[in-house]
Amino acid sequence: MKLISFFATIFLLILFSFTVSAQEEKSKFKSQIDSMVESAFQRFDEKLGTYIFRDEPTDKDELTENSCPEDVNIDTDKEEFKLRKKSYSRGLFSVSPEHGIVRNSSQLLPWEITDENLLFRYNRVEGLFLGLNYPQKYYWNDHHISLFASGGYAFKAHRWRGGIGIAQQFGTDGTLFEIGVEGHSLTDTRDQWLVDLDENNLAAILLRYDYRDYFGREGISAWTGLYKRWQKSDLQLQIAYRNDNYESLDRLTNWSIFGTDKSFRDNPQIPEGRMQSILSTLHFHSTESRKIYSAGWSFSAGAEVSGKSLGGDFDFNSYTVDLRRYQSIGRYDNLNIRLRGSSATGNLPFQKAFDMGGLSTLPAYRFKEFTGNRMLLANLEYIVNGKMFDDVDFFPSWLLRNINMMIFADAGFIDNVDPDFSVLDGFQSLNKKSLKSDWGVGIGTRDAKLRLGFAWRTDKSGPPMVFLRINRPF
Known about the structure:
alpha+beta; 5 helices; 16-stranded antiparallel beta sheet; 2 domains; globular; Porin
């Protein structure tokens, strides 16, 4: 019996040894697979310049992201680098958008701000548009004249579009004062804040969805601007005089790769005529910290006055305020909030009206389902990165850490009130019945841009509205 007991003990020890060894090999193999997959994903990020799979830059990288000259050593020549960075930066902002918080989209310049030299867009009123762009530069520590221009051809509309401008700049140690004038002929839209140009291009080319509405705008503008930039914060104050002729544009194309069973929707007609206005804008952005997500504030306010005393065919005043907070809860989760309000007095033309519903507003409703001259909007999203679940063994860690899980809720109010109401009047009809709201869930990539969402209305039961985005809603 003792001999049998001895051999049984030896057998159990050998079995235990093999089990431990097998677990170690399995763990080692799993780690190797995770490492290989993560390495491949990081190379994908490096080629595209994204941060979907790799870790975002550190604060030190953030300081040097834009224009570290090759002949300047950051550690030994900090003062020289600081001077060069301030003097020759194209950027108007302290932190580039891919490294900081999401900025409010508004019309600081006559056309959409881009640093790209090649212009490309596809929409239902122009077809394919190709052009060249010489972006404006900002000289933060010098007195300098800045020239900029943009131009291209719309193949379906058979017309050239673009503009040219000049600005005198006075920069002193993080403060820049500017006076400028420009002329333009544009295919314009009021929908920059709803959908990004690249996202709209993809939707139009692939799926025959063109989310933007368009109008022609030709004229001149003159402006003065005061800009300030700190290490992680920036401020822009601008006052501009605009003199433009507005015209309606028709849908001219119906081509896309997919979605051949439907048509592009018609482009809405607008009140045509000459508009002379004073436009004032104020923007402030502050990126406080970044772990997986960014934290900080974004504030925007704009006022456009177009009274007939200025001349022209339109008589209205329009005001918009947009406040956003990006709040880190922990290392791997974020709470993001946006509050937006708009109000207009006088006879607000359609090209200046406020829209709500669908992308970036109330995703459970139809796109631009509501239009009016009073609008209130609140958006909230809670995002959790899969790295929070790194200790979960039954799911591949490389997959979890590159996925965001999100819960969101939205509420909005819109109305069309008497043009003679004051700017703060017209919100009396805001109540539980007139408030539109929804909630939803989604998954997305680690940079929170590519996301698949499911949104439900709160006022009635029904199937969810499904949406796919390649940009954050706010």
